[in-house]
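note to self: dont lose this again. the chain is below, predicted strucutre after it. 110 aa total, dont forget to put it in the shared folder this time
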Amino acid sequence: MGFEVEKVGDVTVVDVRGQLIVGNRQELKQRVLHELDDGARKFVISFENTGYIDSSGLGVLVSLSKKVREHGGDLRLAGLNEDLRTLFELTKLDTLFEIADSRDEALRGF
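---
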């Protein structure tokens, strides 16, 4: 479980590995906010290696989306499996986030 951060051009990609839950959500938040403070404005959070997001994980994604937008940026999600995509649809969060099928698709969208 953890996060990998890399730059692909001017896009910051955060790869979530394992679950995004109450125990690690602050680490994700701090990593994205650090990049935002350093001037990053385009973000992709990839869930291709994630099978589960709890309510606190959803909350931190909403918070980060708001913060990034306040700074004139864009945060996109990628690689949600079928269960996670259903979760985003049921909670109507699919209307808040641009969700790509893959990390590469999300990067092409910028």
